[in-house]
Design a protein that fits this description.
single chain; 236 residues; alpha/beta; Rossmann fold; 5-stranded parallel β-sheet; 3-stranded antiparallel β-sheet; 48% helix; 14% strand; disordered N terminus
């Protein structure tokens, strides 16, 4: 892919958006097709949350979280074919997807000291990616990589996202789906309402509503945007 072969500067593509829009799946596939690194920043916040829970830190106590957040060694592998996430050298890719972490991650993510530390790690990952990176999260385009070559803001209705999450989890009863929907709406409110680096669409981001799109359609659409946008980026 010629986009990834540019020698003048690494390519930075960022995808932001609320939970359940397919950011991870889409970002990873785009990175793979372009031959770029991949960064799941949500996994980093989940890894931090998992460590705090495992060490008995009250995640609702922002001061306690801030003090403890400097302790874990979090490393995010950026190989799109097999991304990894470790804490203190231990693979936590499974545990960070559990219900306890999901319920607590928004509170942990709202702590400024946590965001400051992880943003530094995220930028370091991009600097270490010579060909460029595709990064997904909540504040990639607004805070972490404000000068990204392409910023995409993925959206989808809450009901659509709840249905997708239910399908992933094998939940098919109305009560279970309603619970998933309520959790998504809670996370949306927490992520958009936090004082530090809230979920928001960057002014120069391209909004893509995935409600009526299959994953392959989303991927092809964004690849087209990458080709258009990066081709127009002057040498730096």
């Amino acid at each position: 892919m010629d986009t990834a072969d540019r020698s003048d500067a690494p390519v930075i593509v960022v995808l932001d958006g609320p939970a359940g829009t397919g950011k991870s799946t889409v970002s990873r596939e785009i990175a793979s097709r372009l031959g770029l690194s991949f960064l799941d920043t949500g996994a980093m916040y989940r890894a931090m949350t998992h460590w705090l829970l495992q060490h008995g830190v009250d995640v609702d106590d922002a001061d306690a979280v801030a003090l403890a957040s400097v302790k874990p060694v979090i490393r995010s592998g950026t190989d799109a074919s097999g991304p990894t996430i470790t804490v203190d050298g231990r693979d936590v890719s499974g545990p960070i997807r559990g219900a306890a972490v999901t319920a607590a991650v928004s509170a942990v993510s709202a702590v400024p000291e946590v965001r400051t530390r992880l943003v530094e790690l995220q930028r370091g990952s991009a600097e270490a990616a010579p060909r460029g990176i595709v990064a997904e999260g909540r504040d990639m385009g607004t805070v972490v990589f404000p000068r990204a070559d392409l910023k995409v803001f993925l959206t989808a209705s809450a009901t659509t996202r709840a249905a997708r999450r239910a399908a992933q989890l094998g939940v098919d009863d109305p009560a279970g789906i309603a619970e998933i929907l309520a959790d998504i709406e809670r996370r949306d409110a927490a992520d958009s309402g936090r004082a530090t680096s809230p979920l928001a669409k960057a002014e120069d981001a391209v909004e893509v509503d995935t409600s009526e799109m299959a994953p392959d359609e989303v991927i092809e659409h964004i690849l087209g945007l990458v080709r258009e946008r990066v081709a127009a980026v002057p040498s730096r």
